[in-house]
Amino acid sequence: MTFPQFAYKNITRNLRAYLAFYLSSSFAVMIFFMFAMFIFHPALETGYMNNIAKKGMVFAEWVIFVFSILFVLYSVSAFLKTRKSEFGILTIQGASPKQLRLLITLENVFIGLASIVTGIIGGTVLAKLFFTAGSYIVEMEPLELYFPLKALGITIGVFLPLFVLISQFTLFIIHSEEVVSLLKGSVKPKREPKSSIPFSILGMMFLGGGFGLALFAGIDIGSAVIITVCTVIGTYLFYSQLSVWVLKLLKRNKKFYRKGTNLLWISDLMYRVKDNARLFFIVSIVSAVAFTATGTLATYKSMFTTEDSLYEMEFLSYSSNKDENEQLTYIQQQFEQKNIDYEQSKFKVIETGQGSSNYPVLVLSYKDGIKILPELKTSKLEEGKGVYFGQTEREGYTVLQDNTTDLQLNNQQMSIKLQSIEQPLLSLHDVLVVDENTFNLLKQGNELVTFYAFQFANSKENLDISQKIHDHIVGETYNPDARYSSKAIEYYQTVQLPSLSLFIGLFIGIIFFLAAGSFLYFRLFTDLYEERKKYKSLAKIGLSEKEMVKNANIQMAILFFLPFLLAIVETGFALQVLQREGGFSNVFQSGVITILGFLGLQLLYFIVIRSSYIKNLKEYVYR
Q: In percent, how much of the chain has pLDDT > 70?
């Protein structure tokens, strides 16, 4: 038998143990490949929004890859516990370190190749759906399928070396142990788990302190770091000390402890929780990050709405703007280069501050107002009165107070009675239309500002030229002599960019969550050999199949859902901080929807793994 054949048979004989590793790796490869197909799509070579989407996908690729390294590293090392005795036997039989290295490398290459092939096939099959969903959510032009040569190359070039390098790390762990230790494998007597009451109380204090600060403390960088550190330390102590202490308290309750199979699952759980403290800690933290990030992105997207401005582009030029003619010419040239038919309007307006907040408002004469909105003709303005177009509240200042708004002039205030208040008219500022006499009075001592308005079709599809004009007029930061606004840019900032963030974050969150579930799967099947022998011995002294299944179900449910529940609690406090400090009004609604979605995935994962686990126990114990 050759070494490749030997490696292949090792995999097929331990197929159940390798299955989660293979499927999870395939899923990671599939997501990576689909993102790569998106990144290298020919349609994304040009266009401002396309470039932003491409950069976002590149960021997601790196996140997926870094997490894949940690995931593959853990999953490969998880098999060592069940295979140490095998390596010890091979060493005694004369296998050299070089041969062991070749064997493990071949095994990882075989699994890696299978994962890469499956992931690429799955990614190709689902690519059209992925493109359609991405284009719909981000509201881009639909992307067509293409032959992804670059995506294929980078996926294979990234993941194949990853599996090989991880196998070398595994060899380092094996070579650091003595042959006797390898032969014993996992068959080593375990000491009774111990918990420290001071550390248990400390864990409660850290968790309570972190949650308390999240509820009541003002949030800045320092307090955010303190909350994070307290929560992380408290979570670890919860699993390593506090949970063992609670189980010991249950054990001391003789009436409860000796009832039914409680004795079995409490005793077993004490060992499992103590042994897997680091695993549960990682699962809780990863799940909490996935829940919080996804819920936050969903909330961020839902809280933004676009105000429907009357014009597609708005350009406000002050008297100090010496480049007004050049800027106006640049705008017109951009339209001509794209063969866009447009209408240009020009108005002289007054910019004043409003009330105590000094929020800018543009004052238009009635004569110019009816040019913008002909329906104003039906409501002739009386002297000293105006029609207000804008929001009723700005930064805590109420615009409409006793049907009056105060205009802040150079060194004086003027009160204008409002005849009516309407929906916003422009994107740049709120608008107040007044009668001619009032407008002429306001002109005294106030400079007139030139307002240009542009109307054309399909403004959302012309983000490129809108961004070019914005950069030319406003610059990278701020231009005190001019203002510019565009429907395309507003739509990009309030709809497309949050949608892109949600789309990318959702996939990353799902990968994190599935990886957390896979960690639990690996741990369960790593301990399966010992569990089968234990239940086999218990069956000989009278443990029924029903009792075995009940006991295994309780243990599995606690292992799967205890980290999940703690992650929900931590997510709830994180969302509370966002609602209080970030102004997210409906954050809990989005958070609940997000958690329910992940709970559905967790239940499905639990049912599938439970079925396989129980079936394996039954076949061995009661065959």
A: 74
Tokens representing residue 37 in the block: 């197909």
Distance in angstroms between the alpha carbons of the first and the last residue of the chain:
32
Are 354 and 407 a contacting pair, CB within 8 Å? Answer: yes
Nearest 10 degrees: CA dihedral of 152, 157, 160, 162? Answer: -130
Among residues 316, 328, 317, 309, which one has the least CA distance to residue 488? 309
Token duo for residue 617: 């126990």
Contact of 591 with 295, CB cutoff 8 Å: yes
Which whole number is the average pLDDT over 299-304?
64
Query: What SS3 class is residue 319?
Result: coil
Rama region for 458: left / alpha / beta (φ>0; ψ in -120 to 50; rest)? left
* Residues 6+ positions from 546 with CB-CB distance below 8 Å: none
Look at residue 138 in the predicted model and tell me its pLDDT.
66
The helix (H) or strand (E) run that includes residue 251 is helix 243-252
Please check whether residue 344 is in contact with residue 535, taking contact to mean a CB–CB distance below 8 angstroms: no
Sequence-distant (6+) residues with CB within 8 A of 9 are 1
Distance CA(284)–CA(234), nearest Å, equals 12
User: How far is C-alpha 257 from the geometric centre of its chain's CA atoms?
Assistant: 42
The whole-angstrom separation of Cα 252 and Cα 614 is 29
The whole-number pLDDT of residue 186 equals 47
Residue 552 binned pLDDT confidence (cut-offs 50, 70, 90): confident
**Is it the case that residue 615 has pLDDT exceeding 50?**
yes
Residue 143, classed as helix, strand or coil, is: coil
Helix 80-92 with 149-175: angle, nearest 10 deg: 60
Please tell me the total number of residues recorded for the chain in this structure.
Answer: 623
DSSP 415-482: EEEEEEEES---SSSEEEEE-HHHHHHHHTTS-EEEEEEEEES-GGG-HHHHHHHHHHHT-SS--TTE
